[in-house]
Amino acid sequence: MKLNGISLNIQHEVETQLLELDPHEVGDQHMMTNIYTPMREGAHDLTNEEKKREIEKHFRAIMHTLGLDLTDDSLKGTPARVAKMYVEEIFSGLNPENEPKIALFDNKYKYDEMLVEKNITLFSSCEHHFVPIIGKAHIAYISSGKVIGLSKLNRIAQYYAKRPQVQERLTVQIAKHLQRILETENVAVIIDAEHLCVSSRGIKDVNSATVSAFYGGEFKKKSKKQELFNYLK
Ligand SMILES: [Zn+2]
């Protein structure tokens, strides 16, 4: 039984337990094994061009196996299109070279209340089914002396969204990244998203949404949470 990634570098107790679970169970319950995206060794050895060639070949094989006619004018370009989309767009966040370059500014105007960037559009992909997760992220922080350009909050959220994901991990990855670069614990991230693997297949519930949250530092306090919720109303 192979549960990708978790046999590699980091071996927490919880992961060892998960190794004994049936992979189908893990996928259907959308369980997360690790806050790090599970990457294999040598993940970045191939160039983007090499990755695209490999994915194109394998995606062609999938389509062929499904019985599709790859000489059809409408279908023949699909393997290359999917490969390009995977590497350059929807999974580009797997490549550390695409991590957004962030310039921080001194908080000269001494703004010391929370800053909230709400309704950040997120497109991600469920790592268990490779179908879209569509939602909104709300990010808040209280400056420790450094401030960040507002659009950079969107960029960081999108960088982590452009990976095969589990919503809880996506939430934590964005929050931890912001805590690190802003040098403060005072970061909150809330994600409200629809999972197409839940709405379009499996249980087929088109009305359900999943909300996940991370509250660090001051945001653990009830009063700060309440203030944040008021802004999000
Ligand atoms: Zn799924």
Structural features, described:
By secondary structure, this protein is an alpha+beta fold. The chain folds into two domains: 13-98, GTP cyclohydrolase I, N-terminal domain (GTP Cyclohydrolase I, Chain A, domain 1, Orthogonal Bundle), CATH 1.10.286; 104-232, GTP Cyclohydrolase I, domain 2, CATH 3.30.1130. It is built from eight helices and seven strands, in the order ααααββββαβαβαβα. It has helices spanning 13-19, 23-28, 48-65, 78-90, 150-161, 167-182, 196-199, 222-232; strands at 104-106, 114-126, 132-142, 146-148, 164-165, 187-195, 210-215. A five-stranded mixed beta sheet has the order 5-2-3-6-7. Strands 1-4 form a two-stranded antiparallel sheet. β2 and β3 form a beta hairpin. α3 (48-65) packs across α4 and α5 (150-161) runs antiparallel to α6. The N and C termini lie far apart (46 Å). Mean pLDDT is 88; it is low at 1-18. Bound molecules: zinc ion. The site of zinc ion has 6 residues, from loops. Residues 30, 126, 128-129, 195, 197 line the site of zinc ion.
